[in-house]
UniProtKB/TrEMBL annotation:
It comes from Streptacidiphilus jiangxiensis. It comes from the Bacteria. Residues 28-170 form the MOSC domain. InterPro entries: Benzoxazolinone_Detox_Enz, MoCF_Sase_C, Pyrv_Knase-like_insert_dom_sf. Pfam families: MOSC (PF03473). GO terms for molecular function: catalytic activity; molybdenum ion binding; pyridoxal phosphate binding. Signal peptide: none annotated. This is MOSC domain-containing protein YiiM.
Length: 217
C-alpha cells in the first residue's frame, strides 16, 4: 500500500520552449479535495479538475488522464541534480510514496480514496517542453538513460481524492510488463518487449501503434 502525498494541477503559463507557446507542466499541490473524472477525448483533456493540458496533440485524454511519480524517485533526482524538486515539478498529478511507480505493471489497478479506481496505461515520453522546464543540459538523454518514467493512468471509476489518501493496488496482471519496460522498448533499449506490446492488455493504443510501426507489422 502507498500514500498519496500530493495532488497537483497546472495552469497555463507562457513559455519559449513549448510548441503551443504555453505550458502547464509546472504543477502545484492543491489543498483540499480534487475531483477526478474520465476524459472523453483521446488527447487534450486532463482527468483532474482544474488541471490544464496545453499540448493537446500529445498529452491528456483517456490513456493519459493522470500522471503519477514517486517521491522516492524525485528525491534521487534531487540528490543527483543538486537542487530541490518539489511535488509536481515533473508535471505529475499524483506524487506518491510507498509505491514503485515506474515499475507499475501495465493494467495494474489502484484504488485511491473511497471510489477512485485508476489503471496503469502508458509510460512517459520525455519531450522538449520537459527539457526546457527542467533547465538541465541534455535532460532528455539523462532522463531516458535512467528509465524511471513514472506512469500514466486511465480513470476506470471517477472519484474525489486529497493528499494523505491511501493508494491500494487491487490488481496486478501476471504478464509483468511495466511502465519502465515499455519506456525502454520505445527508446530502443528493450526490443524484446516490442512484440509483447502488440497484444498487451491495458496498454495505451498510441504505444501499441508505435510498437507495431517499429516491428513493421
Amino acid at each position: 500500500m502507498g500514500t498519496l502525498i500530493s495532488v497537483n494541477v497546472g495552469r497555463p503559463e507562457p513559455t519559449e520552449y513549448s510548441d503551443p507557446g504555453v505550458t502547464a507542466i509546472g504543477k502545484k499541490p492543491v489543498d483540499g479535495p480534487v475531483e477526478v473524472t474520465a476524459p472523453t477525448e483521446r488527447k487534450g483533456v486532463s482527468g483532474l479538475a482544474g488541471d490544464a493540458i496545453c499540448d493537446v496533440r500529445h498529452h491528456g485524454g483517456v490513456d493519459q488522464a493522470v500522471y503519477a511519480y514517486a517521491r522516492e524517485e524525485l528525491d534521487v533526482w534531487a540528490e543527483e541534480l543538486g537542487r530541490a524538486l518539489p511535488d509536481g515539478v515533473f508535471g505529475e498529478n499524483l506524487t506518491t510514496t510507498g509505491l514503485a511507480v515506474s515499475d507499475a505493471v501495465i493494467g495494474e489497478r489502484w484504488r485511491i480514496g473511497e471510489t477512485l479506481l485508476l489503471e496503469v496505461s502508458a509510460t512517459r515520453i520525455p519531450c522538449r517542453t520537459f527539457a526546457g522546464w527542467m533547465e538541465q543540459e541534455r535532460w532528455v538523454r539523462t532522463f531516458t538513460d535512467r528509465a524511471r518514467p513514472g506512469a500514466y493512468l486511465r480513470v476506470l471509476t471517477p472519484g474525489v481524492i486529497r493528499s494523505g489518501d491511501a493508494i491500494t493496488v487491487v490488481h496486478t496482471p501476471e504478464h509483468g510488463v511495466s511502465s519502465a519496460d515499455v519506456f525502454r522498448a520505445l527508446h530502443s533499449r528493450a526490443p524484446e518487449v516490442l512484440p509483447l506490446m502488440l497484444d498487451l492488455p491495458g496498454l495505451a493504443e498510441g504505444h501499441r501503434e508505435s510498437a507495431a510501426k517499429r516491428l513493421g507489422v
